[in-house]
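Quick one, T. Sequence first:
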Amino acid sequence: MVGRKGKKTAGFPVSGVFRMTKGRYSGLPRSDLAAFIFHRIEDRTEAISGDTIERLEQNPEGVSVVTFARSGKRDFDLVIGADGLHSRVRELASAPKATSKKISAIRPRPSKWKATRRAMNSCTSCTHRSASRSAASRCATTGRFTFADEDPTVPPDVASQKALLRNRFGGSGWECPRIFEAMDRSTDLYIDRVSEIHMGSEQRSSNYGSLQGSWTRGRVSLIGDAAFCVSLLAGQGSALAMIAAYVLAGELHRANGNCAEAFARYESLFGPFVAAKQKAALRFAGSFAPKSKLSLFIRNRIFDLLAVPGIADLVIGRDLADKIALPDYERFRFGS
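Structure tokens:
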């Protein structure tokens, strides 16, 4: 953590994160991960790109009829929505949801600005906002701006988004002018409000059948951010989505066609784990955009204490450790 002039105000070594995760800590670009997974299945699985779902229906036999904007109608035995925070499948299936809006995050990813070492520096020179840059081993540096806003409306175009950033962080000092220069050359800009998705678990019925679980309606289920977004505050979105996919696929295989049983088991096994991750994210929210100078001071002192192994394990070790026993599904292997 640094101040307006770049002087260190708090911090702890990344080695502590490796210790608390027992060396099982890594990061890679999400686009690389997605490309790797796709290339593993592209010869065996049909892929429809550049399309969107306009309608989703379930008939008494439980067969899902999906109407695509360009590809027409198709019948499917199951529909699994893995389409993110703003899930279209979740919306069409009328699954209950509650979005907890906390802060807005705008992340410019400047091109042609190479990192010198693997690290993350964050500047919180005033309350309610912070700027940071993180370096990876082979990628350009990622710049991130986070700020609190009562009305986190997302500007409709890139030019307006960049103008908003300059207006909010123009006087923040540190390396912000350098980040802005790189941002102006870049088209890779991501902006969204930081939200969690909490699904209701009450039993109810609709045109799509009765709700079997908070992530399921009839023969439609959700995984990843579509079901349980833990937000930028918690991280691990891709990892949690992959674990959810593993459990759901394994339970579908084990249930031998009984999707209701598989969906119920999937949520029973994975739901409590995700709920704990979401609670941890909310505890950490204040560190991104402290609400007062006192909050900022306390945040910095806590970050200093995280350099002490015992204290670090006590404060955030429980949130970093993934305490879940994943089933070993017999005869179920990827690609089989």
